Amino acid sequence: MILEKVHELKHLGDMVGLSVNAGRILARWGLHEKLWAVSHSASELHIHDYLGGLVQVQKLSMPRFGAFAYNGHRALLHEILFEHAKSLGIEIRMGCHAVEYWEDEANGKAGVKIQTGETFDADVIVAADGVKSLAREFVIGYRDNPKPSGYAIYRAWFEAEEHGITTDPLTDFLTIRGDQLHAWIGKDVHIIVSSSRGGKTICWLLTHKDNAAVDGDWWSPGKMEDVLDIVKDWDPRCAAVISKAPSCIDWKLLVHDPLPTWVSKSGRVVLIGDAAHPFLPSSVQGASQAIEDGLTLAITLNLAGKDDVPLGTRTWESIRYQRVRDAQLMGETTRDKWHGVNAGDSGKSFELPMPEWLMAFDAEAHAYAAYDGIAQSIVEDGYHQPSLSGEELTEQVKETP
Ligand SMILES: Cc1cc2nc3c(=O)[nH]c(=O)nc-3n(C[C@H](O)[C@H](O)[C@H](O)COP(=O)(O)OP(=O)(O)OC[C@H]3O[C@@H](n4cnc5c(N)ncnc54)[C@H](O)[C@@H]3O)c2cc1C
């Protein structure tokens, strides 16, 4: 059963990326046609310096490493996954806000209480409650507030024709040859502009320095004049695209120190996805790693069996931990590489990294291959954290096809 706090799915957010490592799994679930139909299909990323000089063209043609990436509006992709879960007969209860977690080691149960006072118990509770997770404190035993990353993103998503993109010679390049993907990079700022659905919708994302402490919601309406001020001396195409958006949001990028664990003391409450490891968007891996988490957890729980849930959850954590950390660090490296660019920079690669260890990875095959060795070491260590070091785990992950 899934408990979700919102009462209905809303058209929230904008571009979200499911990279090929997640796409491989989703295609196996029979979702390729549906996901690809709402995905952005540009085959090249054009990278410009802030004055408009073309620095590099990165080929993005699909399939890559035998799978597709699905980048599109979060609400459209999300709805497909939501309907898929329902079609499998999974009960989804909307309007259920988890307010408390518990676990009972002696009776081998864990549970959750929702806002109405109703309680649910189960063999395992999987807390996928996002970057502002309530379950996190229960699992790690202390409050771990997110910290500003030093950056924020202004972001917008809108219809191209309705907002004048198709009639302005500075912006019509986004619509006349189908889906397009462009990046402008400069000191401490980068902008990504994409058109989707055959050039019909536009999304722009402007990442910039922002040290504001975040209190309450991590996004709020952005001021268009502030965004335009950042690009006033940039390639005029940037201001032309940005100014067409009817509005934008100001999304503070938060970071957490890596958590010491994602699994509760008795091994029956686990944090997955952003609750365990929020990602910077420049890694393009937040949603993909959440999907790898879910798939891997299902396999390790199945292999450990109903009678040994803690073995399933601890083995899952060991399989996932270092890989997720490596993917998180890649997001920081990409952002720093892009923010160090000078006008006319060339001969240096600014490509979005698509390393084989990340993209060619088959999380399903890896979970089956890694399970026995790691589960055995956890049993030998008395169900404590695994004896393998982070480096050893990374090597093991990289060696698995
Ligand atoms: C409204 C929204 C818009 C987003 N827009 C974008 C975007 O435009 N681009 C992008 O790259 N990423 C976006 N993200 C983040 C992106 O969805 C995640 O990084 C990624 O999908 C990882 O997913 P997750 O399931 O771990 O977390 P999330 O997608 O954040 O999902 C967490 C879910 O848990 C629910 N929840 C939270 N607390 C409770 C509780 N106490 N009880 C019950 N349910 C609870 C939330 O309502 C939400 O549905 C957005 C997230 C949200 C919530």
Describe this structure in words.
The protein has 401 residues and is of the alpha+beta class. It has a domain at 147-255: 2-Layer Sandwich (D-Amino Acid Oxidase, Chain A, domain 2). Helices cover 33% and strands 24% of the residues. The structure holds flavin-adenine dinucleotide. The site of flavin-adenine dinucleotide has 23 residues, from strand 1, strand 2 and helix 7.
List keywords for this structure.
single chain; 401 residues; alpha+beta; D-Amino Acid Oxidase, Chain A, domain 2; 8-stranded mixed beta sheet; 3-stranded antiparallel beta sheet; globular; disordered C terminus; binds flavin-adenine dinucleotide
SSE series? EEHHEEEHEEEEEHEEEEEHHEEHHHHH
Strand content: 15-25%
- Order of strands side by side in the largest beta sheet? 4-3-12-13-14-11-16-15
- Bound ligands, each once: flavin-adenine dinucleotide
Distance between the termini: 33 Å
The top level CATH class name of one domain: Alpha Beta
| Rg of Cα set | 22 Å
Question: Can you tell me the CATH architecture of one domain?
Answer: 2-Layer Sandwich
Question: Which structural class best describes the helix and strand composition?
Answer: alpha+beta
Mean pLDDT: 90
Shape: globular
User: Helical segment tally?
Assistant: 11
CATH topology title of one domain: D-Amino Acid Oxidase, Chain A, domain 2
How many strand segments? 17
Low-confidence spans: pLDDT under 50, at least 5 residues?
386-394, 396-401
Keywords: FAD, Flavoprotein, Monooxygenase, Oxidoreductase
Pfam family, one: FAD_binding_3
Family: Belongs to the paxM FAD-dependent monooxygenase family.
InterPro entries: FAD-bd (IPR002938), FAD-dep_Monooxygenase_BioMet (IPR050493), FAD/NAD-bd_sf (IPR036188)
